[in-house]
Specification:
- By secondary structure, this protein is of the alpha+beta class.
- The strands form two sheets. Strands 3-4-5-6-7 form a five-stranded mixed sheet.
- A hairpin with a 2-residue loop joins strand 5 and strand 6.
């Protein structure tokens, strides 16, 4: 894993590309993020404005009418900005709309459902 900081004899400095992305992201509105659903690759994703990175939530079908929501990944330099929350809500709401039972392998989704209780989620989580 690479560090966000470049080693410097005088101080730790953010790499230029990460620092630039953090400046771009510091004021971006969450509502401007568009979550896309790639059915073929079984993931929901968000392209992060101003860079080539993206956040995603991956899942697998585990039987007729049920899925395992496995991973939510947000690039380290963009964490803490609500991107994971947007992915979680979109994916969960999509699965609810389809009547899919959901196994929550992803720790973040487990936390999200606990912090955002919903009867819609509750009766479909296995």
């Amino acid at each position: 894993m690479t560090s966000l900081y470049k080693k410097s004899p005088k101080s730790k400095m953010l790499s230029r590309s990460v620092a630039r992305n953090l400046r771009k992201m510091s004021n971006f509105p969450q509502k401007s993020l568009k979550v896309e659903h790639d059915v073929a690759n079984k993931e929901f994703f968000v392209k992060i404005p101003g860079c080539n990175e993206r956040a995603y939530l991956s899942y697998q079908e585990i039987g007729k009418g049920s899925v395992d929501l496995e991973h939510t990944v947000v690039p380290e330099s963009f964490r803490g900005r609500g991107i994971g929350q947007i992915l979680a809500k979109t994916a969960l709401d999509d699965m609810v709309a389809k009547g899919m039972k959901m196994k929550l392998t992803c720790w973040y989704l487990q936390k999200y459902v606990k912090e955002n209780p919903s009867d819609d989620y509750k009766h479909l989580v296995i």
